[in-house]
Amino acid sequence: MAVNILGISAFYHDSAAALVRDGEVLAAAQQERFSRKKHDAAFPAEAIRYCLDEAGIALAELDQVVFYDKPLIKFERLLETYLSYAPRGLRSFITAMPIWLKEKLFLKDLLKQELAKLGAVPVAQLPPLLFTQHHQSHAASAFFPSPFERAAVLCLDGVGEWATTSAWLGEGNWLSPQWEIQFPHSLGLLYSAFTYFAGFKVNSGEYKLMGLAPYGEPRYVDLILEHLIALKDDGSFRMDMRYFNYANGLTMTSRAFERLFGGPPRKPESPVTQREMDLARSIQVVTEEVVLRLARSLHRELGVDRLCLAGGVALNCVANGRLQREGPFKEIWIQPAAGDAGGALGAALSVWHEYLDQPRTGAKTDRMRGAYLGPRFTNTEIQTFLDDAEVPYQRIDDEALMLRLAELLDAGQIIGWFQGRMEFGPRALGGRSIIGDPRNPRMQSVMNLKIKYRESFRPFAPAVLAEQVGDWFEQSEPSPYMLIVAPVAESKRIRMTEAEQQLFGVDKLHIARSEVPAITHVDYSARLQTVHHETNPRFHRLISAFAERTGCPLLVNTSFNVRGEPIVGSPEDAYRCFMRTEMDTLVLENCLLTKSEQPAREQDLSWQQTFELD
Length: 614
Fold this sequence. Notes:
The protein is of the alpha/beta class. Helix content is 37%, strand content 17%. The chain has a nine-stranded mixed beta sheet with strand order 13-21-20-14-15-19-16-18-17, with helices on both faces. Strands 3-2-1-4-5 form a five-stranded mixed beta sheet.
C-alpha cells in the first residue's frame, strides 16, 4: 500500500507544502501563489489542499505529516541569544516574545488545529506529526532528488535552529552530518545585512543586490575582510557582531557599520548611488570566496566528486557559476526551491528515506521533474473562465500557435506565457513566464519599466535550447533551474569602444554587449536556463519555432508577475497581470489573447486595485 507523506514549511517566510508518495515527488507549491501575498508565511492551507487534490487523497489518508524545523530548539537559540546580549536587545526581545508565547512555542498544537480544520477531522484522527531539523530539511531537499548516489552536501542560509552553514555526506538513502557553523555567524545574514544597507528588503532583495554588483567596483572587499568577517583558509568564518544588529535589535546593521561605510543605509526607493553598487560588488566577491573555500574543504575532507547545494545562499547563481567553473567538483546539483519553501519537500523526503529507511529509486536521474510540481489548468477550464468573463480570445492548435508566437516575438512583442504545471521555487521556468526577443536592444528596459515595474538595472535571463547552449554561452553542463550564471560566448560578444569602457555605474546599461543584448549583463554574463524536451516539451517547441524563424535558439524569460507580487498561479491571475501591464499578447495554454482586442471595462480597474492592495 502506498505511503503518502506531507511536508510543511511555514511561519517564517515562503511557506509551502509538498507531497511525496513512496519517495516520488507528486506535488509542491508555495502558499503565496494562492494567497497572492508575496513570501506569505502563513499556514499553507491552500498549498496543502492543492497537494492533496493532485494526489487524489484526503488529509486523513496521509501516513505522516512533517514540519521542516524544530521550534523548541529555535526558541532555545532565541533565549540564549537575548541572554548573552542582555541588557541590549530588550526592545527586540519584547517584540518577539508575544508571538512565541502565543503561537510558536506551541507550534505542534497549532499545526494540529490547522490540519484538523483543513481536513474537517478531529485532532485525534490526524496522521502522526513529525519534525525534522531545519538544515536536515535543506540537506534532504538537495541530496535525495539529485542524480547522485554519493555526494557532499553544503547548506548555507540565514539561520535555522542554530546552524547557518552545514556540511553533510549523502550516501544512498542516508545523510551523515559532518560539521556546522552556528548563529550568529552567518554568510546568509551577512549578505542580507548588505541587502538592508543598500536599501532593499531582506529575504527578497538579495536578488537585486546580486544584479547590482556588476555595476560596481570591489573597493570594500579588504574593509569587509578586515572588520566584518574573519575568514580562514578552509572557508570557516566568524563575524564581528559589533557591526551587526540582527542578533539583538530590530535592524540588520549597527551604527558601527554605518561609520565603517561612510553613512546611514540607503532609503528604500531613493536613487541608487555608486556606493551601493560598490558595496554590492564587494560583498558578492566575499560571498563567492567563502563558498569556494568551503567547497574545496568539503571536497578534500570527503573525497567525493559531486556536490549538492541548498539554503537561501544557494540561490546566488553568480557564486554557483564560479563554483561550477572553478571548484573541485566534477558535478554540482542545486535544489531549485533552495530556500525555506524547499524545506517542506526536504522534510517529506527525509521521513521517507531516513525515518522509514526506504531506498532511493531512479538513481542517476533528476527527480524534481524540472520543478514543474504545481497546479495545471486545462483548455476547458481556461475557456470557461474566459467565456464567463466575456474576454475575447482565439483557440489555436499547437502547431499553428508556435508559428504565430514566433512571428510575434520576432516583431518585438512581449508575451505572457501560461501553460502546464506551475513551477516550484522562485524562478519561472516556462510554465508561468513573460517572454521576449533577446536580440532586441530595448527589450530589457521595456520589460523592466513597462512590464515588471522595477529597477532598470535588473538583468533578465535567457531560456536556451539545451542542445545549443554551448554555441551561445561558455557552458556545456545543463542548467535547467536558472541557478547558474555563465559568460556569453566570445563569438557572440560585441567589443566595447575605449569610451564605453570608461563608463561607470548604470551608464553601462545601454551598451549592447552581444548579439543578444537583452540577456547579456554588463559583465558579459547571463543567468542560464537550459530548456529540455523531456521536462517541458511545449516550451522547447516554442523556442525551436523561434530559432527556425530567426536563427536564435533562446528567449528572454522572466517570471509572470510585477514587482512586489508573487508569480501568477491561475488563469485569472494571469489575465489581471496582462491587463495591468503593457504586455502585447497573453497565451493561456491554446487560448491567445491580444491586448488591442481587450475592451476597457470597469471591472479591469477593480482587478488593478486588488493588486495594489496585495
